[in-house]
Every structure is written in structure tokens, then in C-alpha cells.
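All the exercises in this workshop are built on plain-text protein records. A record pairs a protein's sequence with a compact description of its fold. Read left to right, the C-alpha cells trace the chain's path through space. Once this layout is familiar, the rest of the handout is easier to follow. Here is such a record, shown just as it appears in the course material:
>
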Amino acid sequence: MNGLRFQCQPDCAKCCEMEGYVYLSEDDVTRIAAYLQLPQAAFEERYVYRTRLSRRLRKPGGGKQCGFLEGKQCRIHAVKPVQCRLFPFWPELVESRAEWQKTGDWCPGIGQGPLIQITTAVEVADEMRRAYPDTYSRSV
């Protein structure tokens, strides 16, 4: 691939509705708690599920994937987690034409907008690796 096209589409929240988890970096937790004007411990108790290796947003139930999605709007858009902010420039999508195209089957923003050089897309994807080192490990 020489480049990728992506541009968020108006009134679309398909990425927020996909199955899976929203993982959080320590910085995500700190920023979101401050934005919601909650002590970090209170934010974590209410919204975060921790495992030995990771932390992620709790799912609200009722088939919803994210408790911060209201209609098609993200309640924490200004401070959304790295994973959300970088979508679809995740390593597993940027590094595989098949996965990028498969994601484009349900994400209307893929294939839209200006051409983004692959080197730029890889640099953005590397931010995911830095934010979630336990999830993304690669030999250098």
C-alpha cells in the first residue's frame, strides 16, 4: 500500500458501536477523570475494569459498547482514549490491506478524504503501540 484514505463521516458512530473493548492507558484514565471532574479513584470504580495486564472501559450493558456514547455523540470526545482517537490507524489495520478493506466494509470513512501516506499512517499506528505496550509488542 502506498497510502490510505480515511475521513470521519458526519453523524457516524459505527466505530463506537463495534464489538470489543475500549482499552485505556494510564494517561487516558487521568485525562477522562479530570474532564468528568471526578477523582481518579471514583472514575475508575465507576467506569474502569482492570485486569492484571490492562484496564478498559466497563460496558454499560443493554447491548451498548460504550457508556459515553449518547446517540451518535461521544460525551468525552475532547479527551477520548487513544484507541478511539486513532481509529482506524491501528497497527492491525494499517499493516494489513485485507484488514483495512474488511474494516471498510462497515466503516463509511475508509476510502474517503485525502490520501494519507503509509509512512504517516504507520507513525500514527505506532502511537497505539506506545499507549498499549502490553497489547502491542513487536521486535525491533
Notes: Residues 6 and 110 are 5 Å apart (CA to CA). The helical segments are 14-17, 26-35, 40-47, 82-86, 91-94, 97-104, 118-131.
